[in-house]
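Hello again, I could really use a second opinion on something today. I've been staring at a protein lately and its backbone has me curious. You're getting the sequence in one-letter code plus the fold written as tokens. I'd be grateful if you could look everything over and explain what you see. No rush at all, and the record is pasted right below:
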Amino acid sequence: MNRAEKQALIASTNAKLAAANIALVVHNKGLTVAQMTDLRRKMRDVGAEFKVTKNRLAKIAAKDTTFENITDLLKGPTAVATSADPVSVAKGLVDFAKTNEKLVIIGGAYGAQKLAVKDIEALSKLPSLDELRGKIIGLLQAPAQRIASILQAPGGQVARVIGAHSRKEA
């Protein structure tokens, strides 16, 4: 890789880190190409990007971003997952790590706050943004549904009583 390619890679990584809300660092030693492809696809499905990095270049790229505090994690065969949605990327990595022991979550950062492995696991157990939106919509629709069922109940009860009397007389 020549100097110009390195500069382009640093600029690209810096732009991705600047646009992300969360960056998680993992060790990926021993993963096969098929496993890495599967992990990248899963990360893409949840709106995250997963990139194997050269540690020295990633440290340079992290300067002047909120993720400058994770540069000490960049040792060994590392990869960085970045995303705007912190819950979905944490869920994706934790789920993949459960099924594949060769992916080891090292840590990360959410904005300027550094995250330990237990923090990332706790983050993965939270409901996703789409799940929260669904719950809010359900809560907003519930009162209207209750009012409609209460208004329909007396008419339904009268109809059942009349139906019971007509069957009884027949």
